[in-house]
Write a structure and sequence with these properties.
Bound molecules: magnesium ion
CATH topology of the largest domain: Rossmann fold
Structural class: alpha/beta
Mean pLDDT: 92
Largest sheet: 6 strands, parallel
CATH superfamily of the largest domain: HAD superfamily/HAD-like
Helix content: 25-40%
Number of domains: 2
Distance between the termini: 41 Å
CATH architecture of the largest domain: 3-Layer(aba) Sandwich
């Protein structure tokens, strides 16, 4: 039974700049068996090439096309909504490059959209400019709503924190494209050419990776090397199909069994022969 995978990165493949044990073997196995897969990230800062370079430096044999970021999802979404549109952009290279690649222009006056990603160059002046644009009718779009992001030195505020400031000031609710939005996962499945029920999502975060998978009908595997502890699971009304300690303990047979589950047809109830 063939299928594909979507793999979250932070907390699944690496933590900070450290590769998680077994991740390299797992990824090599996917490549050797020609299994279609994408690394998915809700970090909008880097381009897919930047992310691929980071993974190669960590020892993973990946190419640019293996990467799918929330910046790409946002830019593709916007280009379908408003082909050739304009955006005022709070974010960095990954977001701007994706918008340009999808036919958008970055402007600092009268944009169709205010698009918010993460970065370390945010200024109050940008927030002020964005607020006035939103109040004048620009639509507010977030690459993701993650409240914070882990770094080597601890947490930093995430895109969701910046978006919350603009939402509070404007009274306008943002539309978010990144995980757990079904749009991002659906587009990633299209990218590998498979329907959601033939795809397994591997992630460490219940509220993004697993929730998005459950909502769109993907199979899901939770790894415990990131943000979720076993004792946290009781608070969610949804659960993954499988829980493993780490990606190093995720065997290929289990993944194939989930693909098979997607295609299985329930047997007809047995008929009772008349005596
Ligand atoms: Mg993660």
């Amino acid at each position: 039974m063939n299928g594909g995978l979507l793999l979250d990165m932070d907390g699944v493949i690496y933590r900070g700049s450290e590769l998680i044990e077994g991740a390299a073997v797992f990824v090599r196995t996917l490549i050797e068996h020609d299994v279609p897969f994408r690394f998915l990230t809700n970090n909008s800062q880097r381009t897919r090439r930047d992310v691929a370079t980071k993974l190669r430096r960590l020892g993973l044999p990946v190419e640019d096309h293996h990467i799918y970021t929330c910046s790409m999802a946002t830019a593709r979404f916007l280009s379908r909504q408003t082909p050739g549109g304009t955006a005022y952009c709070i974010g960095e290279g990954g977001l701007m490059t994706a918008l340009h690649h999808n036919g958008f222009s970055i402007v600092d006056k009268d944009p169709d959209y205010v698009v918010v990603g993460e970065g370390r160059t945010l200024s109050f002046e940008q927030i002020e400019t964005a607020l006035r644009m939103i109040l004048a009718g620009a639509r507010l779009v977030a690459t993701n709503l993650d409240p914070n992001c882990p770094t080597d030195k601890g947490m930093r505020p995430g895109c969701g924190a910046t978006v919350a400031m603009l939402e509070t000031a404007s009274g306008v609710k943002a539309f978010s494209v990144g995980k757990p939005s079904p749009w991002m996962l659906s587009d990633a499945c299209s990218d590998i050419g498979l329907p959601p029920e033939r795809v397994v999502m591997v992630g460490d975060t219940m509220t993004t990776d697993i929730l998005g998978a459950v909502q769109l009908g993907l199979h899901s595997v939770l790894v415990l090397t990131g943000s979720t502890r076993p004792e946290d699971l009781g608070q969610y009304a949804y659960k993954p199909d499988l829980i493993v300690d780490s990606i190093g303990h995720l065997d290929f047979e289990s993944v194939a069994a989930l693909w098979g589950k997607g295609m299985r047809i329930s047997p007809e109830p047995e008929t009772v022969e008349a005596a």
